[in-house]
Amino acid sequence: MMNLGKISGHIETVHAYTNDQNLLDNFHEKSRRGRSAALNLGITETGAGKAVGQILPELEGKLTANAIRVPTPNVSLAIMKLNLEKSMDATELNDFLRQTAFHSKYKDQIDFTNSNEIVSSDFVGNRYAGIIDSAATICKKIMQYFMFGTIMNLVIQYSYLV
Predict the structure, then answer these.
(1) Are the C-beta atoms of residues 35 and 22 closer than 8 Å to each other?
(2) Residue 34 counted as domain residue
(3) In the chain, how many domains are there?
(4) Which partner for 77 in 30, 63, 121, 157 could form a disulfide, CB atoms 3.0-4.6 Å apart?
């Protein structure tokens, strides 16, 4: 596996509503979740950053995260904005991610697509924990104040209905 150097960043999940939310405005101990899930966007906390750190210990404590609940019943996505110590472009990063998805110990958990035509409903029932949407990958090489590396934006979609 490629060494990306030190990694830090933020995960923003754009999350389908869950059975924890009300479909009509009503009381909820977390007031934003009490608002109609089918009609509103709602910002809330998520354990995504902590969960990634548990799966990939080298990232533990290096990611922040929050969630936006959106009015769709299934399929969510995570936007990972990461700072990499290694300098690379989007093609190099997508090649690395494709190899990881298809030829690593994560091959049964991660899928990879390069289609420009997919939308969230295409992933309903997908068995993977996450599908890397490589058409959305953005990388910007940086060289600032004696620091070199890459700022990257990665989109991973996932479904709850299998």
Answers:
(1) yes
(2) yes
(3) 1
(4) 157
Distance CA 145, CA 16 (A): 40
Structure tokens at 70: 């959106």
CA-CA distance, 37 to 18, in Å (whole number)?
Answer: 8
The model's pTM is: 0.85
Give the tokens for residue 121: 């409903």
Provide the β-strand partners of residue 157.
Answer: 77, 131
Q: What is the CATH number of the domain that holds 104?
A: 3.30.360.10
Residue 153 in domain: yes
CA distance 130 to 126: 9
Mean pLDDT by 10 residues, the chain (162 residues): 77 91 89 89 89 83 93 93 89 94 93 94 92 95 73 87 56
Residue 44's DSSP bridge partners are: 67
Q: How many CB atoms lie within 10 A of CB 38?
A: 12
